[in-house]
Amino acid sequence: MEIDLGKVPFTMDFHPSDNLVTAGLITGDLHLYRFNADSTPQRLLEIHAHSEACRAVRFINDGQAIITGSSDRSILATDLETGSPITRLENAHEDAIFSLINLTESTIATGDDQGCIKVWDTRQRSCCNSFNAHEDYVSDMTFASDSMKLLSTSGDGTLSVCNLRSNKIQSQSEFSEEELLSVVIMKNGRKVICGSQNGTLLLYSWGFFKDCSDRFTGLSPNSIDALLKVIDLFIWLNFLLSRILLTLNI
């Protein structure tokens, strides 16, 4: 199954319980599609969400809304059914927003081009904490809900661990020789895997984040921009977004 978006996509997310996928484009547009294995995908929504590139998108509130972050520094929440804006936060960061993640039912986190991570209360529509976690863009984030720890990777080559209970940066790895672009928690929380710019996977043991315990090299000739956990296994997705159409393998 293939969806031709017409413009370069920066980000995408799947609905938690329905056959829906949303994508953010370099133009700032937000698209929503319904897909089935035996039919052509149907576009349900197309809005001009941001004045600059839509870099991050996630379904929130059990899929009732879509939240997006942009290089124009704004955050937008959009109603899934009507396509109407629920709320918009202008100048949410001092720098362009690069990444976004759901944390709890009422909180999300965003990361920007200068390494700042902000945690937002979606009910109060306000920032409840911020961390200067990195020296370069926050490429990816993942959340350990049992310990309330937010893990992030960055273009500066580090992995950071932010403790949301103590509101402190608990740990940070040594600088890697390459940019770290993606992160996933594995082995029931015992291992953390990061994907890098040169196609190497870095393996960290939980609680020992200063240096990786192992490396997997030669797995990909391209950068590992995203990691997906599948029944405690992992696959890497190389998004050559400037060269290919957004392809959904269902």
From TrEMBL:
Extent of the signal sequence: none
Keywords: Repeat, WD repeat
Pfam families: WDR55 (PF24796)
Alphabetical list of Gene3D superfamilies matching this protein: YVTN repeat-like/Quinoprotein amine dehydrogenase
Per-repeat ranges for WD: 47-88, 131-172
Residue stretches spanning the membrane: none
Classification via PANTHER family: WD REPEAT-CONTAINING PROTEIN 55
Protein family: Belongs to the WD repeat WDR55 family.
Name of this protein: WD repeat-containing protein 55
Organism: Populus deltoides (Eastern poplar)
